[in-house]
Design a protein that fits this description.
By secondary structure, this protein is an alpha+beta fold. The chain contains 4 helices and 8 strands; from the N terminus they run βαβαβαβαββββ. α1 packs parallel to α4. Keywords: ATP-binding, Helicase, Hydrolase, Nucleotide-binding.
């Protein structure tokens, strides 16, 4: 597989400014994304910094039959990859404008990651059943989305599901 590596500029913006920028660029958010933004644990850095990121599928991490989120994160760590800071997700969405379109086109994903989506590998903020687990990015019919999702650790991610990780030690 061809790995996509990106350097993402993060920080230096408040949550309010990030929301205004996404709105001005017509980026759509679902209810779960709004809930993550509103949570007090979602903080932003006053200082700008760069994060080197890499995309990997569940299969790339060696799981041909799929895996749980904790298995995926553990294997990524073993391979020198880390979780992203929460604030990276909106910065990534603002900077990743050329995401391929999801050919399915439906907002509903029926308990699996949508085709063409990129799930940002994030620390889980809460084990509460109705609290979002994290963010993923989609392009549906030319509309760019930053969406929140919920998945417990019994959920098996498909081998083709794509995650965004940081290269450990990449914060500069």
């Amino acid at each position: 597989m061809m790995y996509t590596n990106r350097r993402i500029e993060v920080g230096g913006l408040s949550k309010e400014t990030l929301m205004e920028m996404m709105e001005s660029q017509s980026i759509k958010l679902n209810e779960y994304a709004h809930r993550l933004f509103e949570d007090e644990r979602f903080t932003t850095s006053k200082e700008k910094y760069s994060v080197d990121t890499v995309e990997r599928t569940v299969m790339d991490l060696g799981f041909s039959e799929g895996a749980t989120l904790s298995q995926i994160y553990e294997r990524a760590r073993e391979r020198g990859l880390g979780l992203c800071p929460l604030e990276l997700a909106p910065h990534f969405r603002l900077q990743y404008r050329d995401q391929p379109e999801d050919t399915n086109g439906s907002l509903l994903s029926n308990n699996h990651a949508p085709t063409g989506s990129v799930t940002v590998a994030l620390p889980v903020l809460s084990e509460e059943e109705d609290f979002p687990t994290g963010f993923y990015l989609r392009n549906i019919a030319g509309d760019l989305w930053l969406r929140g999702y919920s998945a417990d650790d019994k959920h098996i991610w498909s081998p083709s599901d794509c995650f965004l990780f940081t290269n450990l030690g990449s914060k500069k």
